[in-house]
Records
---
Amino acid sequence: MEHTLAIIKPNAVKTGYTGRVLSRIEDFEFTMEAIRLLQLSTEDAEEFYAVHQQRPFFPSLIEFMSSGPIVPLVLQKTDAVTEFRKAIGATDPEEAGEGTIRRLYGESKERNTIHGSDSNENARIEIEFFFPGFFASI
Ligand code: ATP
Ligand code: MG
């Protein structure tokens, strides 16, 4: 699988870090294949994060992810899912490695600036969520 889904989260778009995050993504030599700017409804966010429904942080996560515009992206690179998870770092920016996107631009464990798909199967589902027909068009 050569594709993964990234999302620049509302905190980063709001504070004017979109360009810097995109630049860092390019530093890691990912190619941008698709990009959008949109705001999720509560229902959309609940669907996207359905796997976390039972977690204590779920209500706050849904409110956060639907609180403002986000920038979903399809990224291409060999081994894209694994490589992008390395580029973004651990969920908590304080635990993320030097130079990773979350370490550089994350604000907190929740407001951690960027999402990356965690498996090839989820990448495919998440890409089709934001870019319907993507795989049919390539
Ligand atoms: P993502 O799926 O956004 O790439 P992740 O795979 O590193 O992040 P998940 O466990 O899938 O982490 O959690 C999804 C998102 O939920 C996190 O990115 C973060 O925004 C939020 N989150 C996760 N754990 C916590 C927590 N303990 N407290 C607050 N928010 C959390
Ligand atoms: Mg995840």
Note: The mean pLDDT is 97.
---
Amino acid sequence: MLGNTAPMAVSVGVFGAAGRMGATVCGAVIDDPDLELVAAVDPGAAGEKLRVVSRVASDLEVAAKAEHLESLPAVMIDFTHLDAARHNLAWCAEQGVHAVVGTTGFGDDDLERFRATFTRSNCLIAPNFAIGAILMMRFAEMAAPWFETAEIIELHHDNKVDSPSGTAMRTAERMAAASPEWAADPTTTHTVDGARGGAGPAGIRMHAVRMRGMVAHQEVLLGTTGQTLSIRHDSYDRSSFMPGVVLGAKRIGDHPGVTVGLDSFLDG
Ligand code: NAD
């Protein structure tokens, strides 16, 4: 008999389930009615019961590696470390499991390999899952042709060792691609080295602040005659990334091949 049956929840597993991001992701998946957490993988907590903060308790046991899973989830989410993620993604591609990846640091060689291997399932690699940050980049790109001067200030916690952030670089690349018309830097005298920040794509100045108490923040300042525009995004804690991760897990099946960045997922 045909009836109004609810659509099946997407089955999801998490690599790095005992890590800071992974445990938060497990909670977000459990709390979403359209997703079902069926696997948790983390060698750091192998054999232990999954520990997450969620509305519904979980009795999943953490597996040491994907090879130990008894059944295949439709989607695996990876928040681990670079080498671990390379191994996990090779496994996903081989098994035909979709991958949603937050682990950062992949190079062009990695992306090339993933494009060659993800033939039976899809892969999303998003260096920033905060939807507000994705929109900030999009708005900055839209604004770029209307302004001749722009500077990007990114502000992060004091454990971040690289600068500028990947999000700041990506923002500048998109603004530079959207407009070639940027005014030259007028500064001729530098009393303090680096006071004008670094010159990024198209000469857009980039400034990195590292400060205790902060998480991940960015402000894009644009100026033209008689007006300025400030576009600011603030991530206050890991929960800011969860709507993007959940969206990625729900939509990955509709995005063939390898997608870098969450941007195209926002439109369906
Ligand atoms: P973490 O060290 O707290 O957690 C990583 C976990 O991965 C650990 O529990 C570890 O035991 C586990 N692990 C190691 N090898 C594994 C393997 N082979 N299989 C499964 N699990 C394995 O790190 P974190 O703070 O949660 O960050 C994880 C990653 O997420 C980093 O690369 C970080 O840069 C990235 N990150 C991305 C975003 C984003 O929006 N894309 C946001 C925050 C953090």
Note: The pocket of nicotinamide-adenine-dinucleotide is lined by residues 15-16, 18-22, 41-44, 79-81, 84, 87-88, 102-104, 126-129, 241 (CB under 6 Å).
